[in-house]
Amino acid sequence: MKQLISLEINGEVHELAVAPQDSLLRVLREDLGLIGTKKGCDSGGCGSCTVNVEGKAVYSCMTYAMSVQDRPIVTIEGVGENGKLDPLQQAFIDAGAVQCGYCTCGTIMAARELLATVSSPDEEQIRHAIAGNLCRCTGYQKIVDAIKLAAANSA
Amino acid sequence: MTNRSVLGNSVPRPDALDKVTGGKQFPVNVVLPGMLHAKLLRSPYPHARIVSIDAGAAEKLPGVKAVLLPQDVPQRKYCPVYFVPTLAPSMVQDMLIMSDTVRYAGQPVAAVAATSAGIAEQALELIEVEYEELPAVFDPDAAMADGAPVIHAGTEKNVAVNPVISFGDVEAAFEKAEHIFEGTYQTQRVHTCYMEPRVCVVDSDVAGNLTVHSSMQHLFGLREKLAFALDMPEGKVKVIKPAYIGGGFGGKLDIGYIEPVAALLSLKTGRPVRIEQTRYEDFISTTRNPIKVYLKTGISKEGRFVARYAESTLDCGAHATHGAEVINVHGMFGILLTYPCPDQHWEGKTVYTNNIIGGGYRGYGSPQGAFAVESQIDEICEELGFDPVEFRLNNSYQQGDPHPFNPAAKLDSYRFQDCLQQAAERIDWSSRKPAGSDQGVRKRGIGLGCQPLWVSGCVGFPDIYEHSGAIVKLNRDGTADLSTATVDLGSGQITTLCMIAAEELGLAADQVRMTYADTDTVPFDAPSHASRVTYSAGNAVKAAAGEAKQRLLEVAGGLLEAGPDDLEVRAGMVCVKGSPDVKIRVADVVERAEAPFVVMTEEGPQPTNLAEKGTIIGLSSMAPPANPSPATVEFVEVEVDTETGQVDVLRVVFAHDLGKLIHPAGAEGQVEGGFQQGMGYALMENLVFDADSGACLSSDFLDYKMPTAVEMPVKIESIFIESDEPTGPFGAKSLSEPCVTVPAPAIANAIYNATGVRVRELPITPEKILTGLGRL
């Protein structure tokens, strides 16, 4: 049985009819067309679906849409201001951290929480912050480089 | 070789901006009006005959639009592998879209298309299937034993293919050998773990023509296999090229069940049908085949290979698919051709079992071979007191030697020795300590693994497609559009090919754009696989760009009053050689060529030069001239906790002979990502199966452990040894696959150096190390 809820996503409030079992991921991709959030496993194991809820990185596939009412959500589409790329997005391009790109948006969202709380994270902090985001292309080295670069550029 | 202005620079990837802002163009995002969603019902039994299927209740479920059962499916046996003709004699045609016999747990037996994936899933539960269980076998040796269940009628002892290759007289050579070493090396079944699931959307029109979107590595292979399986002309199938896909690594190198099933459901309903696999379905779709290698090596007093004998047993699972070819690549490039040895004998067996099917995976048989060969070299050196670097240097091919795979060609740009020496120096090889000599609980060790000879594509392999094509079209703004059937898996094919076109055309890298393609509009290209794109597709792109440039110079010649041979293009300008001030913008030349033939002037209509009219365009469709071999060396340093058996990889030094480097950051990315896959293979990755049913128990990344950013070493150092490959586009050959092949033996050898424990079975888990240390 669907219920009407409202979700604040990227600063905009959406009225939605969702079923209790609907994941935030499903609602983002299928109901709202926010396809930057990816489904890689649908079981909380890969991190491709990572979004920010109240600034925290969460797996949207493991989050019931109903559970995040009145909690501001940011997806990759809401990152960056005034048409400019977020420093993380630019750094991922500049550091060569993008290969197939399927994990990229989720990893940027995970790194976003880190940079919001630690302005110049060290290697270990970065690697732990993205430990829940699997990448099969890059070996993570250039992703770590990109997050360092973004931190430096935001300082 | 000409000077390079574009190549050799890490220009921004053209696809990166889209990917950091949401990646809209992945096949997983394809949505069409009226689209249905389909799900597959899979057998819980590993070997069974279907007695009956009742789908009546499923068909009545509201929202269900069509059900597909084995009797609705053409019964044409096919080989699903993209890079060979469907009926290639060297392959095995043993697959059906759906059959009345299931041969592994997880094989599809029915499908439902509905208005939502949820309804389709619900409907699957309403389908009643009555199975007659048949005896099953999961071990390849047991499958070859007398009295084993017959998996495919007509095969002898369940052996699908049985290649045997001999050089010289191996028995006589063993008699003369000073030392003989023997060992058996076993690898496991792993998944490529591309991040984007296999997904397709297939639409049909009223005339029965199909349009296909899919996350796959080969447009034309999908068209060929799909048309064959459905028994329809290829001309009725159009495959749309995805702008990029979310990883492949060989895991999307064959037609799945999903494309033909979606096609049939679309033909039944007249609506587009989408199928997206779950991660569990991906795990059981294609895997790297486990191979057991028995390897016996004869060594001379001086430490030279004098005789080699090997037997490889490959578990292909329920269908041969790639296993019919992987075994050959494994035998040749994984074992026989790795180092020169005059007398060798190898026998491969690809064996049917009731396990899940294998598939392509980066390295394609060489990781399984290298684990055996490179581990055994370490054992030989340890036993006989040879230095493993010196031993390999003394046993390697030399630059200029005839190519052992194709003696008509030479190893012109071969730099294996340089790779060994430079990487050994970087890791400080001379400081390596004797095995197990480190004191304390945490012991460090250094090891190396090599892929001394690899490929740049498949020229010379029987039955394998290798030609490529491209179209290069110049625009009036001075940019160029490139279209090819080459799929970018993430490894940077778009970037590389645009850079090659730009270099040839004298444009900047960002002035060439990779654009739309489908099987109707561009020339054939073999798949993105076999480390072939830079070399083979690169040569085709260079040729197409060269043809467009020739036309550009002809038109410009008329304007500059010079012959085309006296002109060159630099930085977007056509200029007279030796007189750089006599020049015209490329954009102006194209504008002129595209302008109306008759222009209106104050004096009235005036004809222009008819000969210069027309789009400036180049087309190529060609096979590459050769198959030059790169060489690869990798050293790793590990630390082993001898109380827990935990292995940390501390340092990695990789050296590769790749011809001319095109995009340094992209090349490093191949090495770093390749190491992650190879390290996972070495230490942790393993699909686990139920002993009774053969069902895959690894269902997602919680059950299947692959390295995260935390387990990975902080720094992977890449050394690229450049040379000018005479047949390559601007001197390039290949890189990708050896990056994945060498880590497992390097890590195994480093673990031995740290602890004195030799593990001959992957993955090298803490339990195996502790067992070797006598602690378990």
Topology:
The complex is a heterodimer of chains A (155) and B (776).
Chain A: E1 3-9, E2 12-18, H1 24-31, E3 50-53, E4 56-59, E5 73-74, H2 87-94, H3 104-117, H4 123-129, H5 141-154
Helix pairs in contact in A: 2-5
Chain B: H1 16-20, E1 36-42, E2 48-54, H2 56-60, E3 64-68, E4 101-102, E5 108-114, H3 117-124, E6 128-133, H4 140-144, E7 159-161, E8 164-167, H5 170-176, E9 179-186, E10 199-204, E11 210-214, H6 219-229, E12 237-239, H7 258-269, E13 273-276, H8 279-283, E14 291-299, E15 305-317, H9 323-336, E16 343-352, H10 366-384, H11 388-394, H12 416-427, E17 442-451, E18 468-474, E19 480-483, H13 493-505, E20 512-514, H14 533-560, E21 567-570, E22 573-576, E23 579-585, H15 586-594, E24 598-601, E25 604-607, E26 617-622, E27 631-641, E28 647-659, H16 664-683, E29 716-722, H17 738-741, H18 743-755, H19 766-772
Parallel strand pairs in B: 1-13, 11-12, 15-16, 19-20, 28-29
Antiparallel strand pairs in B: 1-5, 2-4, 2-6, 3-5, 7-16, 8-16, 9-14, 10-11, 10-13, 14-15, 17-27, 18-19, 18-26, 21-22, 22-23, 24-25, 27-28
Helix pairs in contact in B: 9-10, 10-18, 13-14, 14-15, 16-18
Care to describe what's here?
The complex is a heterodimer of chains A (155) and B (776). By secondary structure, chain A is of the alpha+beta class. Chain A has 2 domains: 3-78, Ubiquitin-like (UB roll); 87-154, Orthogonal Bundle (DNA polymerase, domain 1), CATH 1.10.150.120. Chain A contains 5 helices and 5 strands. Chain A has helices at residues 24-31, 87-94, 104-117, 123-129, 141-154, and strands at 3-9, 12-18, 50-53, 56-59, 73-74. In chain A, the strands form 2 sheets. A 3-stranded antiparallel beta sheet of chain A has the order 4-3-5, covered by helices on one side. A two-stranded antiparallel sheet of chain A has the order 1-2. In chain A, strand 1 and strand 2 (12-18) form a beta hairpin. In chain A, helix 2 packs across helix 5. The termini of chain A are far apart. Chain B has 776 residues and is an alpha+beta fold. In chain B, helix 14 (533-560) packs across helix 15 (586-594). Chain B starts with 15 loop residues before the first helix and ends with a helix. Chain B contains 19 helices and 29 strands. Chain B folds into 3 domains: 31-134 and 195-247 and 252-283, Alpha-Beta Complex (Aldehyde Oxidoreductase, domain 3), CATH 3.90.1170.50; 291-456 and 626-772, Aldehyde Oxidoreductase, domain 4 (2-Layer Sandwich), CATH 3.30.365; 467-622, Aldehyde oxidase/xanthine dehydrogenase, molybdopterin binding domain (Aldehyde Oxidoreductase, domain 4). The model of chain B has no long low-confidence stretch (mean pLDDT 97). In chain B, the strands form 7 sheets. Chain B has a 7-stranded mixed beta sheet with strand order 3-5-1-13-10-11-12, with helices on both faces. The chains are: A alpha+beta (155), B alpha+beta (776).
